[in-house]
Description:
By secondary structure, the chain is mainly alpha-helical. 75% of the residues lie in helices and 0% in strands.
Amino acid sequence: MRTLLVFLLAHLCWFTPVASTAWAQANPADKWATGKRAVAESDSLSRPVVRSLSPSMRGYRDGLVSAGQYHDDTGWFWGGFAGGLCLGLIGTIAITAAASSKPQPPAWEIMRFDTMGVDYCMNFIRGYGVAASSDNMSSAFGGGILGTACIVAIYFLAIRK
Length: 161
């Protein structure tokens, strides 16, 4: 069993970059094979599947990727920190619940896909909202826990003196 696991791990580490590089060289016009996302996408063998995805699934996937690249959740972290600092765990839970709203992608992002069709655009917006909402919630929760830990530390330092 251990030998099989070592073989599979070696196969994934060795052959996947080779296959991805070969795909990128064979398809230079493919937007997934060139540019900024080539490093992150090079560790999967999903390149042949990309062509067979429906427009709606491509839109959803592109929305997830776009949210990872362009969405900024720093404000939710600091809002969570302030909520945790002021109200403790109740503030952390409240700001995390508020962060669960679905953000919309920027207008320029949607305008890029006006030739792709309505189905693609709607699923792009849905994918973007899912990924951005998840990022917002985890940042708000992390900030809230950090703020709660700070107020607890301040409290214990104050009563110790």
